[in-house]
Amino acid sequence: MTFKRRILANLAGAALSVLCASIASADCRRDTVHLRGDWGQARFTVEVADNAVSRSKGLMGRSHMPSSSGMLFVYHRTDDLAFWMKNTLIPLDIIFLDEMGVVVNIHHSARPQDLTPLPSTAPSRYVLEINGGLAKALGIEKGTQLKHPAVLQPNAAWACREAG
Known about the structure:
seven-stranded mixed beta sheet
């Protein structure tokens, strides 16, 4: 097989793998999180902050966020985390999740511009920020599960490949 044919064969194989993976996880999209618990289910359109630059900026400087939107912070290891509201202009619910995508703590309606650290209180790997007051209004609580492709799928409490 010539070098050119090997490259084309590798590209075709990679494209097929991506296609199969996207079909297998069609219910999971990078821009959407799903939440479920005894209270029911909810879906939010999210921006994903998965590197140091995007995580440090977060939702700072925004004067408005649609009620069905949020930001998902993704860390590459599970650790004790703390957030603050420096330069954040809107109240937020800060939802901490463990490596399985299960809610371990929520700071409800964090005050804009407040510099007080808001700790996870349990090792966390993901943080979801939504408009302040929505978590209580929807009934989101500890134990709620999150479905998103960033959650490590072998460990996910609600994996992308599952129905529902």
